[in-house]
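Let us work through a complete example step by step.
Step 1: write down the sequence.
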Amino acid sequence: MTDTTATRRWQDIAPADATHIDLSKDLTITAPLNEDGERCPWPWEPQQLVGVPLGQYRCPYCMAMCVAGVEHPDYQPGWDDIQAAETDGSHR
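Step 2: predict the structure and record it as tokens.
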């Protein structure tokens, strides 16, 4: 049996080093989930859009709503509860 436990965070990999990575297949690296709970195959694109006008767009790899120049969001189960806690300060 193959161990598919994620041992690396996708955020710790530079986009230039991730050109041949497909997170929908490589389960040893964490991946953000889109709104449908699917792993994004290549979440590095949004953060590379630094300098473009700030705005929402759809990730071309998983169709999640993203913001240009910001890390790809992770819509993991309970993400809306986490966002609310961060907003009202109850996560501390």
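Step 3: interpret the result. The first strand starts at residue 56 and ends at 58.
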